[in-house]
Fold these 4 entries.
Entry 1:
Amino acid sequence: MILKELLVPKRLLAASALIGRLPSGHKQYAVIEQEFLRRLAGWHGEQQAAYHLDQSSLQHSYQLHNVRLTFDEQIFEIDLMILTPQLVVIAEVKNFTGTLQFDPVFKQLIRISGNRHEGFANPLLQADRQRRMLLKWFTARHLPLPPVSYLVVIAHASTVLSTSGKDTQIGSVVCHAEQLETRLAQLLVRHTSNWADDTQLQRIGMMLLTEHQEATGDALTRFNVAANEIFRGICCPICRTFHLERHYGHWFCASCGRKAKDDHISAVLDYFLLFGPTMTNTQCQQFLCIDNRYLVSRILKQMQLNQGGNGHGIGRYYLAPPHEFFHQHYTLFRQRTSR
């Protein structure tokens, strides 16, 4: 059973919104693009792992994707957590191409692509830290302590895995996503006694959901981008221009001739991703370049956004929709040849 589904990460969405509204010649464009592509690769890797997990015959388990918890003012994030009566399994998911070499001496991950060697943080150390933090989280809440195992899951079978030593732990912990079901079955066979029953698992799963903290952050500040450098307007997803016109209930792009009803949705979501969780009618008018408060009220009402504040008009504001809405309706930035 999936307790927390896999949703497109908010930090990927924010990077997408930012790179989609900057000129390619902006001084920070390359840095933001690198961040976007890195997070996009990670997202695709997690999708791959989730696909193989969905195809598995794993029973009597509770799955949580992208859990972000705090213990003793330290944040730890777990890509995938699986609660079973026998044990808890956490997985660190990686999406790399080329050849990955795990160095057991220097505890480093090296990616080899042609003649190029790149060093990365060791995902085994990352996963082990998450395991230790999770056990501390259980202890602090006076919960029964489960056996916790971890896996490092490599998204694609085309990625070649190797090690420079004879450390057998690496081979038992690292696997391709397509091997996930087999590795989980092997772990379950090793643990024959139960640490929790189904009722306890559900209770702990709900506690994890309640204490999950969504990642927040100011993308503009982080990448040193001024608000007045952001392109405003509703973007055509085909030709990437920001000059759509409203014609009889549709948005019309004069550049490519595309016509659609809902192109404003991604623009509204861009605002929440870049400027925060609240938005007034006036702010929406200014960001979408719509000089009609009644049209803005209508399209925001159609999005069924919750409202806050007191009274009508001035003082009222709209609240960002839940994460699931972004997942369902947001279109990630697509590479363009020019702007």
Entry 2:
Amino acid sequence: MKTVGFGIIGLGRQGLRLSEHIGKDIKFGKLIAVCRRSEAGNDYAKEHGVRYYSDYHELLKNKDIDVVIITTPSNMHGIQALDALKSKKHVLIDKPIASTSEEGRKIRSLAEKNNLMVAMNFPLRVNPVTRTLKSNLKKIGRLKQIQIFVSHGPVRNKWQLDMKFSNGGVILDLGSHYFDLISFLTGCRPEIIISAFSEKTENENSGFINLVCKDINVSLVLLRNQKLKKSVITCAGSKGSLSADYVEKKIIVSNAHHIDEINCPAGYDFEAILNNLVRAINKKEEIIADAADGLHSLETALSVYKAIAIKKPVRLQVT
């Protein structure tokens, strides 16, 4: 396979993690350059033998870069993704895909026009717990209900507390992952936000959401800045139930006759996403999560915010 050259825009916590994976775990991937406005980016580039740029527009001119990874604050994702696509680069975007639905649709359209790939960094899709959960869903019969409870720790980045950069709180930050996970598990996207509530309307630390995906009812409790670290998904079907604990990495399958406990295998989420993108560029497999998936996740989050604001159900438009 052809070796794929990577450039990273944004060298914070997420960018550093992806950079380390490219160097250690991606056989046919090579880190070419990084972009960060501070001198810390230059120090990192020197240490790892790659190019450094303080202006991402200059990084986009580097012909050795095939893929641009965007791990900047949320408000920059859409702008930088469009600039990368205009420069004929494939893109891997950390969630959310963009700031608005219109921006997300432009990304999808430009990628199709230029025959380029847009991959979303949705690690829950490749998480070993998710894979084990999905492969065992058939054991509980027809899926009728999903309950998601997520409690995260403190916000790690200061920009996440500034609406100019974050575009939202826990509903956009964590919710983006779980709205996509619902689609991944069910094969359909959320259709109606039945009800939604949060403790405040900007930079919220909680989200309580009820939605419908075809004939499947889904409830989500999303919390951040909590001492408790917990992530549990319970699926109820016509023949039993299945509970997945992402912290303990265990799944319990239960029906009227017995209970089974399944230990999930080990694995690295980002390694799987990066390898998938490399193989997709080499036409060996399909992208795990693409621009359409990113757009659907964003539109679900925006619809939740609308339901909170108007205190009424919101039907998602098909895009």
Entry 3:
Amino acid sequence: MDKTFEQNFFHNPPLWKDGLSKPSFLFCINDEQIIKCSYAIMNLLIINMNNKNMNKKLPIYKIKLSSGCDYAEEQNIIDISDIQGTNCYLDDEARLEIKRKVRDIPTEAIHFIDSGNYHYMSLLFLERIKEPFDLIVFDNHTDYQESAFGGLTSCGGWIREANDIFSNLNKIYMIGTDPGLAASERFSDKVELVNWKTDAKTDTDTETKTEDKTEANKEDKIECKTEGKIEVKIEGKTEAIVDNKNDKRVPVYISIDKDVLSEECYKANWSQGTMTVNELISSVTNIMDRCDVIGIDICGGTGDENDTAGNAINREADQAILAALI
């Protein structure tokens, strides 16, 4: 577009009667200017479409699957903690019962799904998606283990299951995954690991998502607050994802396990990463602002309603995350 024309049109339009700006259809007095006006309007429409998620308000639902779940607020809580056969593994009978009880919860929403023991709940929302989509996961673990116990769905293998059964799942981005745990997995071509921090933990302990963490990791302390500053390291990584998504126009589903956060910021019942709350918020909101997000789920917690100190820390983090997403 001609810069002079653009400047005149948008910033210095000629005055018409009584000091009012002349309407654009009168200002465009020849074919060339009509074409340029059309391009200007199209560009504005495209910008608005690309940022459509900025005004999208997703409803919030909290699903309680265990007696140890500690939600600070009672609003929109779906209590299905009476269902047996759900802790870490999901048997067929429990799966059908859960699906029945959450059938009225829309996929296009923010779903809080208890602790990381129940991260497999993502599958029950993903299976509703019929169009091609990408999955973006924030998790300290791969959740890519092979099925055990007769092929039962598990919190430690749900991403592998999604990869295998959903033909419309285009790409899986794993953000914040411990490189040491990822090194032992054989991922499909759909999976892309986003090693957002070069100094992430690389310990190759034998812990997997089949038994709870028994002792806290005492490694480097990280400040939870960054006073609103966006960490360039992680922002650059998610920026690449966003650019890729905008090229493909493929909608995304975001799944967050808060064990990706450092122990100074959050208390989870699994080994934890090194991400701060602000880094997580910056990454997720960047994706939400510029991609078509068709659903979000969030899990993580102490798994112990009697852990007063840990749950208090978690509530503060949860409130910050939720405030940024709504």
Entry 4:
Amino acid sequence: MPYTFIPYTKISVVRQYPKLLVNEKNKMYKNFLYILIFLYISSDLYSQEGGVISYFPDGKIRQIENYRNNKLDGVSKYYYENGILKQMISYSEGKKSGKSFYYYDTGILKEMLNYNDDKFNGDFSSYYPNGVVKESGKYLFGIPDGEFRAYYETGQLKSYYTLINGAKNGIIYDYYPNGTIKAEANFVNDIQEGLTKFYYEDGSLKGNYPYSSNQLHGDVKEYFKDGGLMTEKYYEYGRLEGIEKTYYKNGSIKTESNYDYGFREGTTKSFYEKGKLWSEQIYKKDKLIGETKIYRKDGSLWYIETYDNGELISSKEFSEEGKLVAEQTFEKKN
């Protein structure tokens, strides 16, 4: 059988999409084109270069910003609605850099800050509305570092301290408005250590408070203005321990209490100024228990009160001759 050549015939394949799908594809394509055109136009219309000014509705200037390569660069100014300058901020390539100033709506300087790469860096100061310096200090790349001072509105120094890498170090001083020292405390890497002293406004010593690792630790003594001992007690890492005594100005003992692990425990006694016993009380973990006895100045028994877990459950009153003159019981609440 002879070989028969059959010529190649190209067959066109036409895809048949539903009419609705074709229309949707056309819409998506058109929308995509619109977005591209909008972005192109916007990049030209809204690119910012040089000075850009915006206004309040009444026509007063709201802000003046300077741009370079579409980033804030140079000094920008911002205003209150009354026309007073509110902020003056220096930028470099979109970040705060150099001195910046912030003002009250009266025009008085409120704060002065130095920036580097959007972080506080260098001197800073803040001011009261009357223009007097409120605080001053230094930052190093966003971290407070150096000498810091705070002032009263009169301009008198209020406190002085040193920060190293953000932590308090050395002696911190607080002052009264008259300039005398109010307190002094020592810190090591933000931890209170050593002896803290408080003073009266006349400069006389008010109290000595020893610290270890941020906690009261050791003998605490507090004084009257005339220098007489007012209180003596002992702390063990923040907890009261042992005997606490308080005194009258004449030096006679006023109260005597015992503490265990921070709780008042055992017998507490109080005395009249001339030394006579005033009361005897019994405590258990800071709560009154048992009999409390109260005496007159002549030494005669006046009352006997009975407590249970801090609650008064009965009371007896006695005459100076020792006779029972009144008795009362109370219903327990707990």
